[in-house]
Design brief:
With about 190 residues, the chain is mainly α. The chain has one domain (about 1-150). It has 8 helices and no strands. It has helices at about 1-30, 35-40, 40-55, 65-85, 90-110, 115-140, 150-170, 180-190. Helix 6 crosses helix 7 (about 150-170). The chain is flat.
Length: about 190
Amino acid sequence: MSSQRNVGSLVGGSLLIIFGILALVGKIFQNFNFWETFWPFFIIGVGVLFFVGMFAGGRSVSGLAIPGSIITTIGLMLFYQNLTDHWESWSYGWTVILMSVGLGIFIMGFWGQNETQRAAGLRVLRLGLIMFVIFGAFFELIFTSGMSFGLRSIIFPAGLILLGLYLVLMRSGLLPNRSADTTIESTENSLEE
């Protein structure tokens, strides 16, 4: 019971600190419309509170890393979009949420000392990254053709090239295939037993 009260006090105190800092910064920089620019930090703060709860609760609540990663990532995406006014990036931004699920699973496995969860998290993270490059290139290069966006116009073509090289090198056997190694090891372990 007292550990639940401690976690509640920690979360409540953290919220008060965050709101106090935001209010203070808003008063100091009155000419700068702080709330209009930095409102996504409320969402980021909620995501961070899941991590605070995870660290305070110990290994048994390592699953809090998944919603913490998702909510924090959404807040960071909203902050980026709010700063750049690039709201159309939601057309492929959902893949970043998939990556945050993988990151959350990885952190959950790391905090809970579960190697299977860490490996699964990395697989989901890698899948999300591949989908981000493919869908991002599709929407940024095809639907915005003729419009120059600076660095974004270079990142996605370079990402496609790197993804293609990765897939070619994996298929040709020049890069080690970890999933095949894991399958071989688990097969050998089951034969030994």
